[in-house]
Amino acid sequence: MSIIRFITTAALACLAVSAAWAHGITGADQEFLINNVGPQIGPFIYLGAKHMVTGYDHLLFLAGVIFFLYRLKDVAIYVTLFALGHSTTLLLGVLGGLHVDAYLVDAVIGFSVVYKAFENLDGFRMLGFQPNMKAAVLIFGFFHGFGLSTKLQDIAISEDGLITNMVSFNVGVEIGQLVALSAMLIAFNVWRKSASFLRNAYTTNVLLMVAGFLLIGFQLTGYFVA
Fold first, then answer.
1. How far is CA 15 from CA 11, 23, 88, 200, 212, in A?
2. Does residue 19 sit within a domain?
3. Cβ atoms of 64 and 208 closer than 8 Å
4. Residue 18: inside a domain, yes or no?
5. Nearest CA to 201 among 47, 17, 16, 70?
6. Neighbours of 154 (CB within 10 A)
7. Among 15, 31, 71, 149, which has the minimal tally of Cβ within 10 Å of its Cβ?
8. Burial (Cβ within 10 Å: 0-12, 13-18, ≥19) of residue 205
9. What percentage of residues in the chain have a pLDDT greater than 90?
10. Do the domain assignments include residue 31?
11. Residue-wise pLDDT tens digits, 56-113
């Protein structure tokens, strides 16, 4: 399967998954969170990693961030900024009781995908200015963290062991991010060795924008309908 066909399929899958699941915590995972009492480090690390690996919105943004990053040092800087952002607001949201509307924050997360793809397409240069992308990644990281926290705030998690469990969940998120990032870097490095990379870079980022707009549209529809 070509990379273009893969990304197209992934974008459509994002919309389908959004409609069916809305990237929440459901089923056995939700039941565990509701019934759990006391510190459970291992299970919360697992849930955090699972949530990140299956978090299509977060992964689409990360794909856009690393798309044209060829040096591992640059990848590390941007991913660290993103991790710092979402770790801060994830813990602040759950432990500090700072609540935001889930639909609106997820719409901003969808916009982050559009924003990064637009930057990859040199859209800002054509507009005559270039924003600070490190600052943008950090700021969008804050919103991605709030997106994670809203999923947990929707569930009545026990206060017993909450700090330990939330720190464990955040550690799991970082582990999941590293796993997903490693897979993406391997795929990108293989693709970059092919002549098709630069030839299809434009189309790929347009498809990333489409996926971002789909996410925005779904979340805003949910907000106004709800």
1. 7, 11, 28, 23, 10
2. no
3. yes
4. no
5. 70
6. 14
7. 71
8. buried
9. 69
10. yes
11. 899 999 999 999 999 999 999 999 999 999 999 999 999 988 888 999 999 999 999 9
User: At residue 81, what is the residue type?
Assistant: L
Structural domain contains residue 82: yes
- CA dist 82 and 112 (Å) reads 12
Q: Which two tokens stand for residue 196?
A: 């098709």
24 phi, psi to nearest 5 deg: -100, -170
How many domains does one find in the chain?
A: 1
CA distance 103 to 108: 9
Query: What domain range is 56 assigned to?
Result: 3-8+26-225
Report the Cα 118 to chain-centroid distance in Å: 17
Q: Which amino acid is at 123?
A: G
pTM of the model: 0.86
Place of tokens 């490190």: 134
